[in-house]
Amino acid sequence: MIRILFTTFFIFLPVFSITITRIDEFQDLVLDTKYENLTTKGELQPELYRVLLDRENPPPAVRIVVTSEKASQQNPFTVTVVHGKTIHNLALPRIQSRDGHRYSYWFASDTLCDYDSSIEELGQPVQLSISSSVPSTFELRVKSVNDFHIGQEPILSRASPSEQRYYMYTFPSDVDKVDVKITSNSELCATIVARRVNCPLFDASGLLELSEVYYYQSFTTFGGFSLRKSDIGSQFHVAFTVNGDDSVCGTQSNTSDHGGGPARIKAATISVTPVAETSILSAIPLILEIQTTGSI
């Protein structure tokens, strides 16, 4: 009996030692803190970071913000994020292709789409592996998204082509229909999308992953539609994205940010409001719903 225990100890000891070494390699960062002048060694050697979250009261969602001005297609900068069961990848420059046009951005900001939204999973540490082919300097921030769940109050949001935003709405038990609205003072062409909850919501380039049930509308200063619980489910995501140019909205394109600059940042207000079925005006949003359903 003693021999069996002794042998088992030595079999598992190397595995245990490897695990401890890997944990020790992580550099701990603080949630909602911006870190500047971080560096990579190049040659795709990973830099490992970890952000510990409050296990009992974690944020409803977490957002990764990263900037690396030296990133290029020849010298890419890659980030892999692990949060519980969720694995998210992004690369800089973030390259997006739309209607034959190609746009490149050296900054990105993504909200993690967690496959498991239980308190236990949301409280797991956020682990990041960052690497580049040549030594690079970068900025990094892991931030909480405390307004992730849309309630009765409108949400103020800001987005750009490489920094898409999305939120979640849950139908109350006594509500069957809602109006989704977005307003902005900016004339930049953008899109609002409502999609049945399913991850991932965006691909590595920051473009929307379409599903079998979604609604959308391109807009400049106002957009929206009505949704029924029976059509989209008891929960849905509301995504707000800014187009790389303004051609979809039929206006002159603003191309000043195609090198990755901040010119196409758009602020908007998003609201989701229950609709009483007895309202005479309820038929008007229903027409919008039919017209705006389709593929992007």
UniProtKB/TrEMBL annotation:
Principal localisation: membrane
Membrane topology, as annotated: Multi-pass membrane protein
Signal peptide (UniProt feature, chain positions): 1-17
UniProt entry tagged with the keyword Transferase: no
GO terms for MF: double-stranded RNA binding; RNA transmembrane transporter activity
UniProt key word Ribosomal protein: no
Keywords: Glycoprotein, Membrane, Signal, Transmembrane, Transmembrane helix
A GO-annotated cellular component: plasma membrane
Compartments it resides in: Membrane
Family: Belongs to the SID1 family.
Protein name (Swiss-Prot/TrEMBL): Uncharacterized protein
Provenance organism: Caenorhabditis brenneri (Nematode worm)
